[in-house]
Amino acid sequence: MSEDRITLEVRERGAAELGTRNVKRLRRQGLIPGVLYGKVTKPFVVGERELRAALTGPSGLHAIVDVVVAGQKTPHHAVLKDYQRHPVRDTITHVDFHEVRLDQPIQATVTVQLVGEAPGAKSGGVVQQVTRELRVEALPASIPEFIEIDLSGLELGDTLRLEAVPPIDGVTFLDDAAETVIANCSAPRGLTEAEEAADEALAAEAAAESAAEAAEEPAAEE
Fold first, then answer.
1. What gap in Å lies between CA 165 and CA 183, rounded to an integer?
2. Which of 80, 99, 118 is the C-terminal boundary of a domain?
3. Is 182 inside a domain boundary?
């Protein structure tokens, strides 16, 4: 859960620090541009190291961040809204935070992690994860970093849907419980093709026997 509180000190961006050219200059200085959305939108800059530390804590990307703007005493309780990465270096190039009230629920997208071993896999089946993220609603401090879903009841040929996932206290799933498929366990493709070929061979053999019997009937009557 996002109960850990992280303080992130930022500096508000002035008019001279807006625009593509100025943003590139800030990044060369080790500063990351960002925006804090709330009652008032505040463009800011923050140190790359400080930002990375804030987003890699125990609660990951769902941590509650107390954004403190330089020169102000009151922190802004916020959660990560969006971020952008450099396509080659994979470093964060821009970040957006959304100011929240701690006593009001918010919506978020949370990663699904499969745990346990499916009995169907022990029987030679292949487990396929269909849904990798779920939409949830909860108080900011109750948004989970990830959702663990147990596969210990998944047999060969079974499909695990969201409706079979145990509820999480304080968290509401927003996806359709009956329609959302989390994972399934099916026979390997090669085995399925072999079974289909065997069925076709048996069907062809049965058809041949039926044809032979039909051909013998007139001869028997004569």
1. 11
2. 99
3. yes
Evaluate whether residue 203 is within a structural domain.
no
State the residue range of the domain holding 150. 106-187
Which of 118, 192, 189 minimizes the C-alpha distance to 159?
118
**pTM as predicted:** 0.73
- Over the stretch 196-210, which tens digit does the pLDDT of each residue have? 556 666 666 666 666
Find all residues with CB under 8 Å of 138, minimum gap 6, and list them. 105, 106, 108, 144, 170, 171, 172
Let me know if residue 199 belongs to a domain: no
Query: Are 1 and 141 a contacting pair, CB within 8 Å?
Result: yes
Rounded distance, CA 36 to CA 15, Å?
16
Would you list the DSSP string of 152-168?
TT--TT-EEEGGGSPP-
Q: How many domains does the chain have?
A: 2
